[in-house]
Amino acid sequence: MPRITYREAIKQALSEEIERDENVCIMGEEVAQYNGAYKVTEGMWDKYGDKRIIDTPISEAAFSGLAIGASALGIRPVIEMMFMSFSYVAFDQLFNNASFCRYMSGGLMNVPIVVRGPANGGTNVGATHSHTPENLVANHPGLKVVCPSNAYDAKGLMKAAIRDNDPVFVMENTLLYGQEWEVPEEEYIVELGVANILKEGTDMTIVSHGRCAMIALEAAKTLEETHGISAELIDLRSIRPLDEETILESVRKTGRALLVEENKPYCGVDAQISHLIQYKAFDYLDAPIHRVSAIDAPQVYAKPLEDWQIPNEERIIERALALME
Amino acid sequence: MSLGMATTQKKTATADKTKGAKQADFVAAPVNAKLSTEEKLTLYRTIVGIRRFEERSLQAYNQGKIGGFLHLYIGQEAVAAGITSLMGPNDHIITAYRDHGHALAVGMSMNECMAEMFGKHTGCSKGKGGSMHFFAPDKNFWGGHGIVAGQTPLGAGLAFALKYKGLHGCCVCFLGDGAVNQGAFMETLNLVSLWDIPVVFVIENNGYSMGTSLERSSAEKELASRAEGFGIEWESCDGHDVFEVREVADRAMTRARDSHKPFLLEIRTYRYRGHSVADANHEKYRTKEEIEEYKKNKDPINVLKEQLLSDGTLTEDLAKEISNEKKAEADASAKFAEDSPVAPRSEIQTDVYWEVDNDTEGRLKGSYFFND
Ligand SMILES: Cc1ncc(C[n+]2csc(CCOP(=O)(O)OP(=O)(O)O)c2C)c(N)n1
Ligand SMILES: [Mg+2]
To answer: Which end of chain B is more exposed for a tag (fewer CB within 10 A), N or C?
Structure first.
């Protein structure tokens, strides 16, 4: 199987969907002539032209709302946020209009748009550029959100998102763009709402998503090799819809849960997972549920501090050992 | 060159105003004619200082000492230097992420700025904000903001407060040519006109927003003319001659202070470097010739140097001395930054909440932080 980068995987998904459906178009800042701020859409403007790959002014509110309007008549816009952090200037369009048009119309209007772009910290760019708002999105019924942790999922989830009839946010990660994974040449889809067990284990369940799942995978290997602890690692992939059953099944088996995410803890995704576990698997728990999240403060700029602020292997292992006590 | 025009005046009439004026007229304008030798040298020192500082920071970035983004102001220096030189005690400024020039021009030290970019505890924001987020409220400088046009309503707010408190002052709020297309800015324009708020918006039009030329981002190319739809007066001028910047901005700022009227000023300028240092391919969306042409004919340092040489303010020797001084200061700031410590981990959670930082009674009511 060929190994390709996360970036290339997304580009393949976008290109395949553009070729499959004439209503799919891409819109965003620098996506066309500049080839994308992070080069995700590199070469696509050359290949598909002005009609399909559209450069916008720095007007996120306008082009987000425009995408919603266009989707009402069957267009399937994929809008790129150069950083997901910039979606905040389009908050009303995305969090009122995209999420509630279906509901407010009693189901008469659909909003089949995709909002994609990097949503991560760890790159030393400060608080305003390091948001991980998958929890905010998930807090809005009507919106869907996925956080691919690797190239295979990125491609499969992106294709599913584009074909989805509701608004789907795809949270990418600038630190993953250049990393490679095996991705089959044949077409495939990764359905929304299906978690992935990255590693099987018996002593504890680690639940994670996005790049954190990859960090947790390293930590789980170290736990096994150095500490003789067998951790099962679940990568959520999709935050909403959420694969509750896979989480519960694992916790019923291991009796312990460690939740790891890059989000800030208050009302983070893991707050919901934690509730789910205690509510539906209470009798199976041998210990309280533990969490590793970003240290609760705006993202700090200084690199050594930021590297400590977001979950790293060291912090995950420390928590895992505490959980086993 | 009075500002007595009606607010509905056609764009061509306004735009032509400065285009027709010659360099000599700007130098002769009262606001410039009154400058002492020392004041003129200060302007020169500021502009050269910004250049040398940024050249040094670029070097540090390439050595991996500075992380994140580095948006250089090289080529635009006369705009910040000219406008900040007009600031009175009640005048305030605010800008976007391309903020090094403004910071140094209001008198922030190279040390605190360089250390901030190195992410050190001695930085102006303790290493929490980085290159895009310099602040110096004691110098009436309110940042350094990373989200495009996010600073524009804040600028209006600073000016609102001045008027509210009955202070004779104004706020100058800088933004880019790409930033004009954000909704927040459009809403703000209406508000400041409706409420007579003493803010001067300065669009630093360097022709590009990242890789997008002005032609590809704005339908109406005379950006400042948007002011007309809001009943705001406007003007556009060139930004490579600090005397021109001062002449035009002085009228706008004086009017704002005296009559609480907002103003929209577009200053044509140019950045020599990429959008940020990461924008390595900036010669793909513009030509080498375009960059060289600006460097040759409109370099803010050269233009001012020529003027000061010809009026006897400056000699070649003194120019060299100033440049060396500033280079040494920039080098020293890099050493200072290098030698400074990173803040301790406990600093991650300071400067978030008042109660926690000041350990007030409120600190005991409710939890403020939520890690396990
Ligand atoms: C809301 C928002 N969208 C996008 C960005 C990314 N971005 C940062 S600067 C920039 C270009 C701005 O250009 P301009 O306003 O002309 O200012 P200049 O960089 O030329 O000084 C873009 C797109 C951002 N920081 N904020
Ligand atoms: Mg610009």
So the answer is: C
